[in-house]
User: Fold this.
Amino acid sequence: MIRRVVLALDDRLGTAHFMRKALRKAFPDHWSFMLGEIALYCFVVLLATGTYLGFFFDASAQPITYNGSYPSLHGIQMSAAYASVLRLSLDIRAGLLLRQIHHWAALVFVAAITVHMCRIFFTGAFRRPRELNWIVGLVLLILALGAGFTGYSLPDDLLSGTGLRIAYSVLLSVPVVGGYLAFLFFGGDFPATQTIGRLFFTHVLVLPALLVAAMAIHLGMIWRQKHTQFRGPGRTENNVIGSPLWPNYAMKSVGLLFAVAAILTALGAFFQINPIWLYGPYNPANVSSPAQPDWYIGWLEGALRLGPSWDWQIFNHTIPAPFFAGVLLPLVFFTLLFVWPFLERRITHDGQPHQLLDHPSDVPWRTGVGAAVLAFAIVLTFAGSDDVQAKIVGISVERLVNLYRIMLLVLPVAVGLLTFQFARELRARRNALAEAGTRIAISRTDSGGFAEQPEKDARRP
Ligand code: HEM
Assistant:
């Protein structure tokens, strides 16, 4: 039957030629090439679980008095949206499990994208001819951050409502157009009755559709340009050495899909996440403590906490403090990322196409810059929970803020310089051994560690 269907399709569409070529396409093997796929499969899990949640979520700010199955909230006024998420969590069969899997999948999705992006950066995979795909990738990252934040805000609980209020203030701080932007996204002065409806539409239709479109372009470009590969025996700028798409690569990839789905399901089943019934419904007069966003918004939260308290008056317009840390900083950060491939080309005068990847130590200055930027983002992320740390350590939040401000200036420079030096020494050592015609042999030691020894008279491949 399969043969008849395939023949009939080939007869009408001439698919056999394309399929024969496609199924034999070679994919280079390296564990780090799985990172993009992990992101892809998290997205699949997000779509599947989100569809189920969508059946029960009520995107309405309609005030109701709760009288459901959770006695601690009886008699409390809340939005229909919050009440529907309570019902999903406590009454709907498998609702809590799917909510938790969905939330975990979102966290792992952005983490996989971030690590994938670091792999692309540190191996120079963004160089010609892949600059455009680097840009599409960054669009994917921004869309993923937007999808995470809008989803997190839907339940209308005290924690996410506080996050929304911050986002509203940051939007308002944009000079000239801030008021219009805030009105567009929130549908009125905060807290507006239209906000949840707009967030819902953006979260379940606009952003997923854009994500699917951008992913199709991203993967289409990889297919067309072929995958890069690390240097190794027989690998050149003009060939691709790896497993064929069918059956090796396809089977491995399907296995990865099952593994990702299984791990996310286990996380959702065993590790509680976002128990909104403990936070209570959003009320503008209340703020809970501790109040931290999901990890990928932590750096923005940290930036707002450490940012300068400037209020500038320019041409009769006030530019308030949240603008510098909440708008300008991410704008500069993402602009730098978008132009990086072109900036690097200007610095190195290397406009040649590259199919072979760099080892991070091959280009110490790039690796140093990347490490410095990562250190900057990590300090900001930690600063985003300084209130909790102040409580644990027993010092005042103000002192911790000052400490983090100093760390933000010092640590990235120190980490960048150290990484640069480390990478340079690794490169020099490798070059010296290569010149001597020596290969390094790595063997296990008795205690279970690794030992490196020059392998005499063996030529480097
Ligand atoms: C939803 C987010 C994303 C998904 C699902 C995704 C998916 C993938 C997949 C499956 C691959 C091939 C395997 C691999 O190299 O890992 C890939 C390669 C690539 N990705 Fe992404 N990606 C995403 C985000 C990003 C981001 C944020 C960037 C960079 C800013 C990026 C830049 C690239 C580039 C340049 C390649 C080609 C790499 C090469 O040939 O070595 N991607 N992506």
Notes: Residues 457-461 have pLDDT under 50 and may be disordered.
